[in-house]
Amino acid sequence: MSTTTVPRSPLGRLSVRRLLDVLQSAGLLAVLIVVFVVVSVLEPHFISGASLKTILVNSSQLAVCGVGMTMVIALRGIDLSVGSVEALAAVVAAKLSSTGTPLALAIAIALLAGLVAGTINGLIITQLRVPAFVATLGMLSIAQGVALLYSNGGSFLVSDRAFTAIGRDVVLGVPLPFVIALLALIAGWVLFNQTRFGRHTAAAGDNEEAAIASGIRVRSLIVAVFAIVGLTAALAGVLVTAQVGDVDATVGMGFELNVIAVVVLGGTSLAGGRGNLPGTVLASVLVASINAALNILGVQTFYQYLAVGLLLILALALEAFRDRLTGSRPSARPGV
Amino acid sequence: MPDQQPILAAHGIVKRFGGVQALRGVDFDLHASEVHALVGENGAGKSTLIRVLAGLHRPDEGTLEVNSRSMRFGGPLAARRAGIGTVAQEFTLVPKLSVAENVLLGHEPRRPWRLLDWPVMRRRTSELLEQLGLEIDPQARAGSLSIADQQLVEIAKALSLEPSVLIMDEPTAALNPAEVDRLIDVVGALRDRGVGVLYVTHRLGEVFRLADRITVLRDGEQVATQAAAAIDEDELITQMLGRELTAVDHEPQEVAEDRQALLRVSELSLEGDFSQVSFEVRAGEVLGIAGLVGSGRSELMRALFGLLHPTAGTAEVDATSLTATHPRDALAAGVFLLAEDRKAEGLIPDLSVRENLFLTAAPDDGESPWLLRRSAETKEYEQVKSFLDIRADSPEQPIPTLSGGNQQKVLLGRAMASHARVLLLSEPTRGVDVGAKSDIYRALRKLAADDAAVVVSSSDALELSQVCDRCLVMSKGRAVRVLGPAELDEDSIVAAAVRGRDDDEAVDEHVDVDKEQPA
Questions:
Q1: What ipTM was assigned to the predicted interfaces of this complex?
Q2: Is the Cβ of A154 closer than 8 Å to some Cβ of chain B?
Q3: The overall pTM is greater than 0.80
Q4: Domain B261-346+420-502 sits in which CATH superfamily?
C-alpha cells in the first residue's frame, strides 16, 4: 500500500505530468520551427503566405475532428469510423447542395448524419457491449457503404459559390476553415476543461468503476462523447467539400489514422483520463506542415504515409517514456 | 538462535527515490524456523525493504547475504533462485488459467518435446495444496476462487520453488477471521518445517500471535528490532507512531428513541446474497454490520447504493421509498457509499484532491451545477479539510500522493459535498495504518454527530466495537443478531458471527428475522 515506490518530484506526481504536458507542446512547437527552418533553407518559397495558408487549411479537418477524438481517447475509447463518417457527410453535403438544397440545410443534414453515426457507435458500445475498437471498425465499413450507396459511386461538383467560399475565405488573415477549427477547439476546451461533463469524461476514462460508483452515468457519457466525435467528423467532411468542391465517397480514406496520430502527438494519453486539446490542434498543424514540406521538396506523395506512420510510433514511444518518468501505469488498453 | 547463522542478512540498506530517502540504512536478518514481523505505518519503508529483498529494487547502499553468501542484486529471478519466495500484496494470479497452471507458472514440469506434463502438474499442485491443508481443485480457474483461496494459492505458488525464505506482504488484508486463523496455522507449519518467514502486516494481533521477532520501521528508519515476547502492543504502537496513540473516546450509546429513523430497511433480499434483512438507523447513530466474508454484508451495502438490485423487500430514506438502480439515484436520495476497494471503486488517480472531492457534487453557492468553479471548490474544500482533518499540502495535489487514511477522508468528504445523510461505509479502514484508523473513526463519529445515519460494515470486530452504537450481525445472508450498546464488545461480535454460521437454528430472540425458509 506504500506509495514510496513511485518516484516523486518535490512538486508531486501531477506536477511532473503538467510540466511534461507543457514540454510536449513546446516540443511540438520546436519540431514545427525546425521543419520550417530546414525546409525554408532548402526551398525559400515555403515560408510564403500562400503555403502557410495551405498548411492551415489542410490542418483544419484534422484539428476539427481531433477535438472530438481527444475526448473519446480521454474516455479510453477510440473511433475508427471518423474517415468514413467524414466521407458520408462530405457526399451528403455535396449531393444536396448540387441538387438545389439551400446551403444551410445541406450542411445541417450532413452534420446530423455524423451525429447519428456517432450516436449509433455509442449505443452499440453501451447497449450491445461491443468494445469501441470493434464497434467503430464496423461503423467504418457501414458508413463507407452508405456513402457509396448514397453517391451511387459517383462524385459531385459543388456549384454553390457560397459553399466553396467556406473553403477559401479569409478572416483577419486567417483562412476560414482554420477559424472554424479554432472555434471547435474553444468549444471543446470549455466543454472538456470547464464543465462537469468534461471532468466526468476524464474520470470515466481513468477509472470507470470508480466513476460509476461515484454516481456518474458512464453509459450516457459514452454515447454523448461518441456523438460529439461523429459531429466533428461530419464537420471535417463539410470542410472537405467546401475546400475541394468535387468529392466522392472515398475522400476520408486513412483519415482516422491521421486523426488518432495528431491526438497522440498532441499529448493525449491512450490510457485515458487526460486530454490535451491545444496539443491536438498544434499537432494537426505540424502534420500538415510536414506534408506540405514533403510536397514542396518534390517528395512523392506516398512518402507522406510513411511520415505519418513514423510520427504515430514516435508519439507512442514518447508516451511510454513519459509513463516511466511519472511512474504511472503503462498505457495498456484492455477492452478496446 | 543467536548461535545460528541467519539465512538472510541485510546490512545498511539505503534506498532513495529521487530526493526521497525511503530507507536510511536498515539492518534486517532472518533465521531458519523464524517468523520475523516487519511493521510500520504506510510510507515507513516496509514495501521498499521487501522489494529490495525480493530483488525488485536495487538499493543505493548496503549488502545482502543469503545463506552466508553475499548476493548481488540481480533482479527478482536471481532472488527466487537464491531461495527467496514472495507472496505479494497484490495478486499475481492469472485469472483464466487453472490453479495448477498458476502455481507452477514459469517452471512447469515438462515431457519430451517441451510438452506440458499435465498429470505431474496436477499432482504437484495437489501436494502443495495439501501441505497447506487446502481443499482446492487444481483444475479450477484461479479467477473463480474466493479472494481468500486465491491468497492461499499465491502461497502455494511461492512454495512451489521450495524457498528457504518466504516474504509475505499483508497476506490477511482480505481475509475474514476464520481464514486468518487458517493462514496463521499455515505460517506456523511453514516455520516448523524450517522456513524463515518475513511477515508484513497492519494487524498487530497477528504480529503477537505469530512473530518471534519484530522490526519496526518509521520514515525509512529502523526504530527497533526485538523479541516479540519483550514488548506489548501499546509499546509497539508507540514505536510505530513515534508518539502515543490518542484513543478514540467513544462509548456506544443508545440513540434517543425520538430521533428520526433515516434509513429503514425491511425484508430486503437479493437472491443468492442475502435475504429478508431488516434494520433501521437513526440520525446521529452509527450502526455496525458484522459478519464473515460471504455473509452478504458487502452485497447489502452495494444493493442499498444501487450497484446491485434487490429482488424483494424495501428500503426507505427519510420515510421516502428508495429505489436505486444506479448510484446516481441513491446519491439523489442522500445515500452515499464508501466502497470497499478504495483504489478500484473510489479514487480517480489522474485527478487532484479537489477534483476527486467534487467529482459529482457541485460546491454549494447556488451557482450553475454544470460549469466548474475552481475557486468555489477550493473554498469548500478548505471547510471539508478542516472538518475531517485531511492532511494534504494542497488541493491541487494528485490524490495518489496522499496516504491511504487521507485518501479515505477525501472520499468521506465526497459524502459531505453531496449532502448525503445516510452514509454506508464498507471496510472504511482496510489497508490504512493504526494512526489513520483513529483519524477515520473520529471523522465518522463527527459525521454522525452532524446528524448523519452511519452504517459501518467491517470484518474487524474490534473496529466495530470501537465506533458503533449498535451492531447487526449477519451470517449466511441473514441478519442473525443485533447487539445493543450494553453488549457491544469484540468478543460478542465475533461469537455472534461465528455462532450464526455454525448453527443456523440458534436464532436469538433479539433478532428481527423472518422464520420462513429462504426462497
A1: 0.80
A2: no
A3: no
A4: P-loop containing nucleotide triphosphate hydrolases (3.40.50.300)
